[in-house]
Amino acid sequence: MAGSSFGVLFRVTTAGESHGPANVVIVDGVPAGLPLSEEDLLPDLKRRRPGQSKLTTQRQEEDQPEILSGVFDGRTTGTPIAVLFRNQDARSRDYGNLAELYRPGHADYSFDARFGFRDYRGGGRSSARETVARVAAGAIARKLLAQQGIRLLAFVRQVGDISAKVEDPTRLTLEQVEATPVRCPDLEAAARMAELIETVRKEKDSIGGIAELVITGVPAGWGEPVFDKLKADLAKALFSLPAVLGVEYGAGFQVATARGSENNDPFVNREGRIATEGNRHGGMLGGISTGMPLVLRCAVKPTSSLPREQATVNQKGEATTVQTFGRHDPCLLPRFIPMAEAMAAIVLADHGLRSLSARLST
Amino acid sequence: MAGSSFGVLFRVTTAGESHGPANVVIVDGVPAGLPLSEEDLLPDLKRRRPGQSKLTTQRQEEDQPEILSGVFDGRTTGTPIAVLFRNQDARSRDYGNLAELYRPGHADYSFDARFGFRDYRGGGRSSARETVARVAAGAIARKLLAQQGIRLLAFVRQVGDISAKVEDPTRLTLEQVEATPVRCPDLEAAARMAELIETVRKEKDSIGGIAELVITGVPAGWGEPVFDKLKADLAKALFSLPAVLGVEYGAGFQVATARGSENNDPFVNREGRIATEGNRHGGMLGGISTGMPLVLRCAVKPTSSLPREQATVNQKGEATTVQTFGRHDPCLLPRFIPMAEAMAAIVLADHGLRSLSARLST
Amino acid sequence: MAGSSFGVLFRVTTAGESHGPANVVIVDGVPAGLPLSEEDLLPDLKRRRPGQSKLTTQRQEEDQPEILSGVFDGRTTGTPIAVLFRNQDARSRDYGNLAELYRPGHADYSFDARFGFRDYRGGGRSSARETVARVAAGAIARKLLAQQGIRLLAFVRQVGDISAKVEDPTRLTLEQVEATPVRCPDLEAAARMAELIETVRKEKDSIGGIAELVITGVPAGWGEPVFDKLKADLAKALFSLPAVLGVEYGAGFQVATARGSENNDPFVNREGRIATEGNRHGGMLGGISTGMPLVLRCAVKPTSSLPREQATVNQKGEATTVQTFGRHDPCLLPRFIPMAEAMAAIVLADHGLRSLSARLST
Amino acid sequence: MAGSSFGVLFRVTTAGESHGPANVVIVDGVPAGLPLSEEDLLPDLKRRRPGQSKLTTQRQEEDQPEILSGVFDGRTTGTPIAVLFRNQDARSRDYGNLAELYRPGHADYSFDARFGFRDYRGGGRSSARETVARVAAGAIARKLLAQQGIRLLAFVRQVGDISAKVEDPTRLTLEQVEATPVRCPDLEAAARMAELIETVRKEKDSIGGIAELVITGVPAGWGEPVFDKLKADLAKALFSLPAVLGVEYGAGFQVATARGSENNDPFVNREGRIATEGNRHGGMLGGISTGMPLVLRCAVKPTSSLPREQATVNQKGEATTVQTFGRHDPCLLPRFIPMAEAMAAIVLADHGLRSLSARLST
Question: CB within 8 A of D144, min separation 6: which ones?
Answer without folding.
Answer: D10, D30, D31, D34, D349, D352
